[in-house]
Amino acid sequence: MFKTIIDSNVLLNQLEDDDLVIFDVRYDLMDKVAGRKAYLQSHIPSAIYVDLSLDLSRSPSTNLSRHPLPDNETMNTLFSELGVNRNKQVIVYDDAFGSIAARLWWMLNHMGHENVAVLDGGWSQWINLGGPVCSKDEKPKLTKFNNTSLNNDVVNIHQVSNFNLIIDSREPSRYSGELEPIDKRAGHIPNAINRFWKNNLSTTGCFKEQNILLQEFKELFGEVPSEDVVFYCGSGVTACHNLLATVHAGFNPSRLYAGSWSEWSATPGRGIETSN
Fold first, then answer.
1. pLDDT by residue (tens digit) across 193-244?
2. Where along the chain do its domains lie?
3. Catalytic residue at 206?
4. What is the DSSP annotation of 45-113?
5. How do residues 150-188 score in pLDDT, each as one tens digit?
6. Which one of 134, 206, 233, 240 is the catalytic residue?
7. Domain spanning 152-264: which CATH class is it, in words?
8. Does this chain's domain 5-149 share its CATH topology with 152-264?
9. pTM of the entire structure?
10. Cα 70 from Cα 61, distance rounded (Å)
């Protein structure tokens, strides 16, 4: 079973597996229908399209971010609709270096399904490999997914400041407050440090080698156990890329502040810092 990332060549040899479920989560924040249009033009055979806004951010939710995390009951319903059960190996891919796919990876792990992996390098690597494609609009086969969440892997707005190591996953200019193209207030959560999620990638667009990630996160965490580290980003999506990278490197899972900066910055009384 694959539990963090999977190489395109390996997936190519798994395509005929009856217990394989592939999800295409390509999504453009500036054009919400672009991902589905791209899927309908061409995708990995048998892949099912999953929408960041309509599926991975369903109500009722646990927070007030731009992409609010669905509650446990909603996620059980979603994964039942998508045809996931305990026997399924799930593979997720996007065209954004895994930044959207990691959200679904994290959600499934949060709900106790560990057999899920992100396609390393995503759609571009698959095309570069010359992997087969199709344009059929695949429909999932309904299943019964009824899992219990790992409640200690997510924190809310009232809890996040209690942790000694808070890591902002956004680009440095947004972390520092020099640039804020989306939210009303610029900066970061007080005492947070910065680890841009793209720092997990090599120049090829694939994840860095495990030993490199291990050393980088060791230096980042210092003496703080990975379980006591909280990651956040703009809306609870790209922080999951850092969470995936830490597990791939060999650490126990860290925690996600799912509301992230979009919730924190919009909540009256929450302090901000703009220095780096």
1. 999 999 999 999 999 999 999 999 999 999 999 999 999 999 999 999 999 9
2. 5-149, 152-264
3. no
4. TT-EE--TTTTTTPSSBSS-SSSPPBPHHHHHHHHHHTT--TTPEEEEE-SSTTTTHHHHHHHHHHTT-
5. 778 999 999 999 999 999 999 999 999 999 999 989 999
6. 233
7. alpha beta
8. yes
9. 0.97
10. 4
